[in-house]
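Backbones bend. Our protein:
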Amino acid sequence: MTAGEQIKQRREELQLSQEELAERIGVSRQAVSKWESDRSTPRGANREALCNLLSIDLSQTEVTEKSCFFRFAGWIAAAVLSLCAIWLWAHQSSAALASVPATPALQSVRFYDANQESVTPEAGWYATDAMESILIQWSGDLPPESAQMFFTPSGTETLDETELLATKVCQDGDGNALLLSAVPLHRESLMGHLWFQLNFPQDQTIVSDSFNVIFQP
Protein backbone atom coordinates (compact mmCIF):
# COMPACT_ATOMS: atom_id res chain seq x y z
CA MET A 1 0.00 0.00 0.00
CA THR A 2 1.34 3.41 -0.96
CA ALA A 3 1.52 6.38 1.38
CA GLY A 4 -1.40 8.05 -0.42
CA GLU A 5 -3.59 4.95 -0.15
CA GLN A 6 -2.74 4.65 3.54
CA ILE A 7 -3.65 8.32 4.20
CA LYS A 8 -6.94 8.07 2.29
CA GLN A 9 -7.98 4.82 3.93
CA ARG A 10 -7.32 6.11 7.45
CA ARG A 11 -9.03 9.45 6.70
CA GLU A 12 -12.16 7.65 5.54
CA GLU A 13 -12.07 5.35 8.58
CA LEU A 14 -12.13 8.49 10.78
CA GLN A 15 -14.94 9.90 8.62
CA LEU A 16 -13.00 13.02 7.75
CA SER A 17 -13.25 14.95 4.52
CA GLN A 18 -10.14 16.20 2.75
CA GLU A 19 -11.06 19.73 3.84
CA GLU A 20 -11.40 18.71 7.49
CA LEU A 21 -8.09 16.83 7.45
CA ALA A 22 -6.37 19.78 5.80
CA GLU A 23 -7.77 22.21 8.35
CA ARG A 24 -6.60 20.13 11.33
CA ILE A 25 -3.05 19.84 9.95
CA GLY A 26 -2.89 23.42 8.68
CA VAL A 27 -2.48 22.76 4.94
CA SER A 28 -4.65 23.25 1.89
CA ARG A 29 -7.16 20.68 0.64
CA GLN A 30 -5.13 20.48 -2.58
CA ALA A 31 -2.13 19.33 -0.54
CA VAL A 32 -4.17 16.47 0.96
CA SER A 33 -5.46 15.56 -2.50
CA LYS A 34 -1.92 15.36 -3.84
CA TRP A 35 -0.81 13.21 -0.89
CA GLU A 36 -3.65 10.75 -1.43
CA SER A 37 -3.00 10.51 -5.16
CA ASP A 38 0.75 10.05 -4.50
CA ARG A 39 1.56 13.13 -6.56
CA SER A 40 3.51 14.43 -3.56
CA THR A 41 4.62 13.14 -0.16
CA PRO A 42 4.11 14.87 3.21
CA ARG A 43 7.38 15.81 4.80
CA GLY A 44 8.76 17.34 7.99
CA ALA A 45 6.20 18.81 10.38
CA ASN A 46 3.31 17.98 8.02
CA ARG A 47 4.27 14.29 8.01
CA GLU A 48 4.56 14.25 11.80
CA ALA A 49 1.22 16.01 12.30
CA LEU A 50 -0.48 13.71 9.78
CA CYS A 51 0.88 10.56 11.39
CA ASN A 52 -0.17 11.72 14.87
CA LEU A 53 -3.66 12.70 13.73
CA LEU A 54 -4.34 9.54 11.70
CA SER A 55 -2.30 7.22 13.97
CA ILE A 56 -0.35 5.84 11.02
CA ASP A 57 3.32 5.23 10.36
CA LEU A 58 4.62 6.44 7.01
CA SER A 59 8.29 5.70 7.70
CA GLN A 60 8.02 2.12 6.38
CA THR A 61 6.20 3.40 3.30
CA GLU A 62 9.08 5.80 2.64
CA VAL A 63 11.58 2.96 2.87
CA THR A 64 9.49 0.90 0.46
CA GLU A 65 9.24 3.78 -2.00
CA LYS A 66 12.99 4.31 -1.88
CA SER A 67 13.56 0.59 -2.35
CA CYS A 68 11.29 0.61 -5.38
CA PHE A 69 13.14 3.60 -6.77
CA PHE A 70 16.54 2.00 -6.34
CA ARG A 71 15.25 -1.30 -7.72
CA PHE A 72 13.91 0.53 -10.78
CA ALA A 73 17.20 2.42 -11.13
CA GLY A 74 19.00 -0.93 -10.94
CA TRP A 75 16.85 -2.28 -13.77
CA ILE A 76 17.63 0.76 -15.87
CA ALA A 77 21.36 0.39 -15.21
CA ALA A 78 21.24 -3.33 -16.07
CA ALA A 79 19.37 -2.57 -19.30
CA VAL A 80 21.91 0.09 -20.27
CA LEU A 81 24.80 -2.29 -19.56
CA SER A 82 23.12 -5.00 -21.63
CA LEU A 83 22.66 -2.60 -24.56
CA CYS A 84 26.31 -1.54 -24.28
CA ALA A 85 27.42 -5.18 -24.28
CA ILE A 86 25.28 -5.92 -27.37
CA TRP A 87 26.70 -2.87 -29.18
CA LEU A 88 30.26 -3.86 -28.28
CA TRP A 89 29.69 -7.42 -29.49
CA ALA A 90 28.16 -6.19 -32.76
CA HIS A 91 31.02 -3.71 -33.24
CA GLN A 92 33.67 -6.36 -32.61
CA SER A 93 31.87 -8.83 -34.90
CA SER A 94 31.72 -6.23 -37.68
CA ALA A 95 35.40 -5.43 -37.21
CA ALA A 96 36.28 -9.13 -37.28
CA LEU A 97 34.30 -9.64 -40.49
CA ALA A 98 35.90 -6.57 -42.03
CA SER A 99 39.35 -7.94 -41.21
CA VAL A 100 38.73 -11.23 -43.06
CA PRO A 101 40.53 -11.02 -46.44
CA ALA A 102 38.32 -11.26 -49.50
CA THR A 103 38.59 -14.54 -51.41
CA PRO A 104 40.91 -14.01 -54.40
CA ALA A 105 39.55 -14.42 -57.92
CA LEU A 106 41.17 -14.13 -61.33
CA GLN A 107 39.95 -11.18 -63.36
CA SER A 108 41.89 -11.23 -66.61
CA VAL A 109 44.97 -12.40 -68.54
CA ARG A 110 46.14 -10.10 -71.35
CA PHE A 111 49.03 -10.31 -73.81
CA TYR A 112 50.98 -7.26 -75.09
CA ASP A 113 53.62 -6.62 -77.75
CA ALA A 114 56.73 -4.39 -77.50
CA ASN A 115 54.60 -1.29 -78.15
CA GLN A 116 52.21 -2.26 -75.35
CA GLU A 117 49.52 -3.00 -77.89
CA SER A 118 47.15 -5.83 -77.10
CA VAL A 119 47.88 -9.12 -78.86
CA THR A 120 44.64 -10.75 -79.97
CA PRO A 121 44.08 -14.30 -81.24
CA GLU A 122 43.71 -15.22 -84.89
CA ALA A 123 41.50 -18.21 -85.57
CA GLY A 124 41.64 -18.96 -81.86
CA TRP A 125 45.47 -18.91 -81.60
CA TYR A 126 47.80 -16.35 -80.03
CA ALA A 127 51.10 -15.70 -81.84
CA THR A 128 53.76 -15.77 -79.12
CA ASP A 129 56.42 -14.23 -81.38
CA ALA A 130 54.46 -10.98 -81.19
CA MET A 131 54.27 -11.09 -77.39
CA GLU A 132 56.50 -9.05 -75.11
CA SER A 133 54.66 -9.25 -71.77
CA ILE A 134 51.68 -10.86 -70.05
CA LEU A 135 49.47 -8.99 -67.58
CA ILE A 136 47.56 -10.98 -64.98
CA GLN A 137 44.96 -9.24 -62.81
CA TRP A 138 42.99 -10.58 -59.84
CA SER A 139 40.67 -9.37 -57.11
CA GLY A 140 41.27 -9.73 -53.37
CA ASP A 141 43.02 -8.04 -50.45
CA LEU A 142 46.40 -9.77 -50.69
CA PRO A 143 48.84 -10.50 -53.50
CA PRO A 144 49.73 -14.11 -54.33
CA GLU A 145 52.97 -15.55 -53.04
CA SER A 146 53.94 -16.60 -56.56
CA ALA A 147 52.69 -16.82 -60.14
CA GLN A 148 53.50 -19.73 -62.46
CA MET A 149 53.27 -20.10 -66.23
CA PHE A 150 52.62 -23.60 -67.63
CA PHE A 151 52.65 -24.97 -71.19
CA THR A 152 51.22 -28.23 -72.50
CA PRO A 153 52.26 -29.23 -76.06
CA SER A 154 49.44 -29.60 -78.55
CA GLY A 155 48.37 -33.19 -79.15
CA THR A 156 49.43 -34.52 -75.75
CA GLU A 157 46.80 -32.83 -73.52
CA THR A 158 48.26 -34.54 -70.47
CA LEU A 159 49.85 -33.18 -67.30
CA ASP A 160 52.80 -35.52 -67.83
CA GLU A 161 53.86 -33.39 -70.80
CA THR A 162 53.18 -30.06 -69.07
CA GLU A 163 56.17 -27.75 -68.61
CA LEU A 164 56.67 -25.07 -65.99
CA LEU A 165 57.99 -22.22 -68.12
CA ALA A 166 58.39 -19.55 -65.44
CA THR A 167 57.79 -18.75 -61.77
CA LYS A 168 57.65 -15.25 -60.37
CA VAL A 169 57.71 -14.51 -56.66
CA CYS A 170 55.29 -11.69 -55.89
CA GLN A 171 55.94 -8.69 -53.65
CA ASP A 172 53.53 -6.87 -51.36
CA GLY A 173 53.69 -3.79 -53.55
CA ASP A 174 52.46 -5.59 -56.65
CA GLY A 175 48.86 -4.71 -55.81
CA ASN A 176 46.30 -6.65 -57.84
CA ALA A 177 48.26 -7.00 -61.09
CA LEU A 178 51.39 -8.84 -62.13
CA LEU A 179 53.51 -8.54 -65.27
CA LEU A 180 55.26 -11.62 -66.67
CA SER A 181 57.82 -11.77 -69.47
CA ALA A 182 56.74 -13.59 -72.63
CA VAL A 183 60.37 -14.54 -73.49
CA PRO A 184 59.89 -18.21 -72.44
CA LEU A 185 57.31 -18.46 -75.24
CA HIS A 186 59.79 -17.42 -77.93
CA ARG A 187 61.04 -20.81 -79.04
CA GLU A 188 60.90 -22.87 -82.21
CA SER A 189 58.09 -25.37 -82.76
CA LEU A 190 56.14 -24.08 -79.78
CA MET A 191 52.47 -24.91 -80.25
CA GLY A 192 50.04 -25.86 -77.55
CA HIS A 193 48.13 -24.59 -74.54
CA LEU A 194 49.26 -21.91 -72.10
CA TRP A 195 47.82 -21.44 -68.62
CA PHE A 196 48.67 -19.73 -65.34
CA GLN A 197 48.42 -20.47 -61.66
CA LEU A 198 48.43 -17.97 -58.79
CA ASN A 199 49.46 -19.33 -55.41
CA PHE A 200 48.05 -17.51 -52.39
CA PRO A 201 48.65 -18.01 -48.64
CA GLN A 202 46.82 -20.81 -46.84
CA ASP A 203 47.11 -23.09 -49.89
CA GLN A 204 44.67 -21.06 -51.98
CA THR A 205 45.29 -21.30 -55.72
CA ILE A 206 43.72 -19.82 -58.84
CA VAL A 207 44.12 -21.52 -62.21
CA SER A 208 43.36 -19.60 -65.40
CA ASP A 209 41.70 -20.84 -68.54
CA SER A 210 44.06 -22.25 -71.16
CA PHE A 211 45.14 -20.20 -74.20
CA ASN A 212 46.09 -21.68 -77.58
CA VAL A 213 49.53 -20.35 -78.43
CA ILE A 214 51.90 -20.79 -81.36
CA PHE A 215 55.37 -19.46 -82.19
CA GLN A 216 55.68 -18.57 -85.89
CA PRO A 217 58.32 -15.91 -86.54
